[in-house]
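User: Teach me something about this protein's shape.
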Amino acid sequence: VVVAPARTEPLSRMREAMKWLMATYGAATLEDTIVVISHQMPRSPVNLAPIKAALTPQIAGYVEVPFDPALARPGVIDHRELAASTLDAWTDALDVLGSLKAPATAENSDQKGKMA
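Assistant: First, the predicted structure itself:
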């Protein structure tokens, strides 16, 4: 999961991080990558449509978390005050995670059917 605020500089850093992922683990790693864009202001200072259009065919999922005043306040976050749209967005991200297939490894197949 790669998370970036919906601002120009963090999105540029996200692009570099994704290039690093591809260079380190291969381009196929993007198929298992979820990009979450977090809106930290009521209105986005960046047009995200081109970013979404470029990423969506390459990644497992793209989720935008809308601005939530409960997250903008300083202090402890009370989950009961989160907006429904925030919870829905993170539920969407979890749905994408749940749809990804775990890679088969020798360690996993040796442990199949055994309790830890």
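Now, about its shape. The longest helix spans residues 8-25. The beta strands are 2-5, 34-38, 61-65. If you'd like, I can walk through any region in more detail.
User: That's plenty for now, thanks!
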